TrEMBL record:
It comes from the Eukaryota. Forms oligomers. It comes from Fregata magnificens. This is Plasmolipin. Keywords: Cell membrane, Membrane, Transmembrane, Transmembrane helix. The chain crosses the membrane at residues 20-44, 56-81, 96-116.
Length: 135
């Protein structure tokens, strides 16, 4: 939802006049689409059919790349906001897009951390934490 807000807010401005917003649009739309595809994959449990693919590693790499590219998109978006813009609504939307890009960056960073823990097997759930081997 936050990624959708980023590209919707930028798309509602005159972003084509500023080259920096092209990068922000690319990053936000690309990762929004891929995230929705991963969500649908897990919702429909398609990862069980493609058991050859190491899903924890794929998700960790995806989240790490998304975090790094969203850092660049956030910095680009925040640096390109001009408070002396002659169109006040463009300024408000671009500033809001910068804020939401920061939130998306943080969310992907947290997902990277949790994906790394899942990949390394450090995370546990209620079922595995109850099993003890006291032989």
């Amino acid at each position: 939802v936050l990624g959708l807000l980023v590209w919707a807010l930028i798309a509602d401005t005159t972003y084509h006049l500023h080259a920096a917003y092209g990068w922000v649009m690319f990053v936000s739309i690309f990762f929004w689409i891929v995230t929705v595809l991963f969500f649908m994959t897990y919702l429909l449990q398609l990862q069980l059919k493609f058991y050859v693919i190491p899903w924890p590693l794929v998700l960790m790499i995806f989240n790490a790349v998304a975090t790094v590219l969203y850092i660049t998109a956030f910095v680009t978006c925040a640096a390109a906001v001009q408070p002396t813009s002659w169109r006040q609504w463009d300024y408000n939307r671009r500033a809001a897009a910068s804020f939401f890009a920061c939130l998306v960056m943080i969310a992907y960073g947290a997902s990277t951390f949790f994906s790394f823990r899942a990949w390394k097997g450090l995370g546990s759930n209620a079922a595995t934490s109850q099993v003890t081997d006291h032989a």
